[in-house]
């Protein structure tokens, strides 16, 4: 269906070709997954299928790409529109109209389908993607997951033979991602649609693929094969493959189901051991170290760890002495009397936020201690971002109270607030204004009132090997995130907030991020991250808070919340349940 | 009970053009009177219908902005009249402002000086008329979906319509961008107001807008925007000839109508030109293979909405030309209290009809 013959793409102004000598055939009706680290040219290959590369992006394409017999050299993207449906990384950049139903019909209108056909297909697609309730909604009011579904629906309605998807599930919560993938599965199986997609979150998609194409590094020839074959050698792989390699299963298991069948002996070996809480909950903090992060005056920093326990501060304000009665792990989280004097880096009491007639948050009560990493989970629109916004003072509480380091964020001047709390937004680029990394650092120092070179030192730590005169736009997603993180950390806030930090990151960048955040937590920063990435939560978070419809529905140590949940359990937990293992690293440490 | 307005959905939606006809009808009525009571009634009627039938869509919120704009026009009109004076003779001097001495060549222009009650009342009436018309336009804006209005354009103009729709969805995106970047500034501890903040945000916002437009263009291209159907050369040439000839005819006809000696051939030329141009547009539509998804239909309720507006305009115009027309323009010299003339007031009330016949938006 899709044939790449000796394809080399060189963009204007770049010295080396982005992809070189690609020979690849995708037969009709297959779901082919394109994997590889960031920057190896996955998006370029996808763009070449729809003809947008090079007709729209510029650059030189050598070789030949044919789709359904049509040569993209002689057919412009609009002439392939009835054959190829493309959804890019950012669904909102894809929309032409302003209402869901019109958006679904737009492609068909362009192709000139009969009104009755259009009406029927729109209704079918609304049902197929579960969008029927949203049909009259303006696109601007949709959540990220809904937008992604509308974007996919909008290219499905002309019934293309080929569907090209660039990271279709990155922005989605696990349930919404499964919905989208189920739809793709159905298209492939029932309608014989050919699907070519790139995705970083392999744990979600690899089991659906008929074939995997691996691009190891820029310019390297692609390796295509059965998923298990490719995963055996792939540098990017989901946790279940890492576990397979660790346990010596060959070929590696790709699904939790396969792994569970093979995992009997492993479970027996692990039965007598308990997960190292340090590995489970991040690295242990040496008792008594004074972290460099600023936090509430008198915040207690002495804590102990116990099996299956999250960090627990002994002290009350003003001292590190153990307080009596501090043995029940759950009292501090719910103890309202401690508000204000509690050694919390942040404290939220009965927070209600209403927007128009919508209650985004309803009576949320939460405390975050210094050195603790908390993962906020829940489906899109559950109120995670609103809660982060309230903590950083962007959202004023309708009622209830928010305290960060003893201050009310939305009444604190921004210049002072940056020294107490920092937020890395979903799109880290928003934080960056300057033309070079060095200028960005100088600005950050000035903004936060830190000494010159403070941000520079952080950049050197978080982002080694990046020249200081690089333009922030030329950085990869992961590097940009690290730079934004450095900018935010320049004020040395006691509380660090991250909104979907792993969106668009490959496994290597994610691992780097986890290392950095662990170190920050160990230094005494309280970390709160809103994320859909269960693997990230398992690796990093001491505690998981699950929000639903603006309410806290679960709050507890990561393994307790996560293991029992079908949606939020990481793959390792699913494989080794009922034993409380969360990550490959834990298993490795125990073996 | 069967006559009660149904819940709105796409199939029974009132055509956007009908809302505009209704609102323009009210505006025409407002333009024919300076009677503040009647103008107040027009604004009230428009406001009531908006309150009863507007949706939660972004454009529906523009009504408040238009109300404020109307008030601003009123204030500015009165202010100018106070400062610049008025040729209107008046006897009730309220206050005498210090007059700015102007050179000889600027005679006839006055700054400061006497302020009479008559001139203020006149400015107030005049401003109120403008404000009421603005509010009527605002009502149309709040009630009619602009995108759907553009979709009613003929096929040949459709692509221009899409371009306008994209541009319109851009504005809210731009606003969202500004909000996001202001937030980001706040996150970096910078003040969000002031000239420097605007400059700091401006460039990234423009950059973002440019990137988005490129992305939308790519998406539109990949989804078949601009596909053309093969049209026989004869048809293509006929289209060009008809459109060009028609436009020329319109020009010549208009000239004929306006010029003294050409009244005879003006009307037929104009009519012929319009017909030829329309035919050209219709033929040109055959070049685009597009079809239209669920276009709005003119149902009975749509006719009632449009008809009520036309009725208001016609009745008020008729009343203003009639013997009772004086009541529509209350005099200011001498000052007299405006009376509410009953027949035009009843005519304006006809404009309330949409509040009862138009389908009710869902979330009410």
UniProtKB/TrEMBL annotation, chain A:
PANTHER family: HEAVY METAL TRANSPORTER (PTHR43553). This is ABC transporter ATP-binding protein. It comes from Streptomyces roseolilacinus. It is found in: Cell membrane. Probably part of an ABC transporter complex. Responsible for energy coupling to the transport system. Belongs to the ABC transporter superfamily. Residues 266-343 are annotated as: Disordered. Pfam families: ABC_tran. One of its GO terms (molecular function) is ATP hydrolysis activity. Keywords: ATP-binding, Cell membrane, Membrane, Nucleotide-binding, Repeat, Translocase, Transport. Residues 2-243, 346-574 form the ABC transporter domain. Its main location: membrane. Residues 274-293, 323-343 have a biased composition (Low complexity). It is a peripheral membrane protein. InterPro entries: AAA+_ATPase (IPR003593), ABC_transporter-like_ATP-bd (IPR003439), ABC_transporter-like_CS (IPR017871), ABC_transpr_CbiO/EcfA_su (IPR015856), ECF_ABC_transporter_ATP-bd (IPR050095), P-loop_NTPase (IPR027417). One of its GO terms (cellular component) is ATP-binding cassette (ABC) transporter complex.
TrEMBL record, chain B:
GO terms for cellular component: plasma membrane. Keywords: Membrane, Transmembrane, Transmembrane helix. The keyword Cytoplasm does not apply. The chain crosses the membrane at residues 12-30, 36-53, 65-84, 156-176, 241-259, 265-283, 303-321, 341-360. The keyword Calcium does not apply. It comes from the Bacteria. This is Cobalt ABC transporter permease.
